[in-house]
Amino acid sequence: MMEAKERAELLGRADRDSAHVLRIFDEEAQAMQSARNSSRMLEESFATGVAILSKYSEQRERLKKAQRRALDILNTVGLSNSVLKLVERRHHVDKWIKYAGMILTVIMLYAFWRWTSCSQVCGVDEISLPSGLHHDEIMSLVCFRGCFRRLLKELYC
User: Fold this and answer.
1) What residues contact residue 121 under an 8 Å CB cut-off, 6+ apart?
2) Which of 1, 17, 57, 111 is the most exposed place for a label (fewest CB within 10 A)?
3) Alpha helix (H) ranges present in 117-134?
4) How far apart are CA 91 and CA 98, in angstroms?
5) Which DSSP state fits 134?
């Protein structure tokens, strides 16, 4: 009986020790599981951070391209504005040249009309011609001289 008693005591102690050992192993297993979970979460966080940084890098490149395009467009618009100003200035100058040409043409036509009709205006119909000169040449010179004097008198007197 003593043997049975010792055996029961040993087995009881073994059960208590084994429960204690099982509890220690259980706590160790939980700690290992917790460490694995933490490691997995850290790896996921690292992967998320890498993905975020790569997305930021892609966005940075897209924004750089958009900025370059915007600057190109602004340069083109600025160039277009300067070209438009140059065209407007040229148009303004061309307009004045056109009007000056019109006025000059009208003056020249009037002078030509006066010159060709000078014989009636100046009252010079017949002139005795020296030798070597034609009647038309003399009439033109006399009429022009007389009409030019009259024109000057009309303008300045």
Assistant:
1) 114, 143, 147, 150
2) 1
3) 118-122
4) 10
5) -
* Cα–Cα distance, 117 to 143 (Å, whole number): 9
pLDDT band at 151 (very low <50, low <70, confident <90, very high): low
**Structural element, H or E, at residue 19:** helix 2-116
pTM for the model stands at 0.37
112 φ/ψ angles, rounded to the nearest 5 degrees: -65, -40
82-116 pLDDT, tens per residue? 888 888 899 999 999 999 999 999 999 988 887 77
- Can you tell me the distance from the alpha carbon of 134 to that of 138, in angstroms, rounded to the nearest whole number? 7
8 Å CB contact between 137 and 111: no
DSSP state of 129: P
Record the tokens describing residue 142, joined without a space. 């006399």
The one-character DSSP state at 132 is T
CA distances from 121 to 3, 74, 106, 114 (A): 169, 67, 20, 8
Cβ neighbours for 118, distance < 8 A, ≥ 6 positions apart: 124, 139, 140, 143, 144, 146, 147
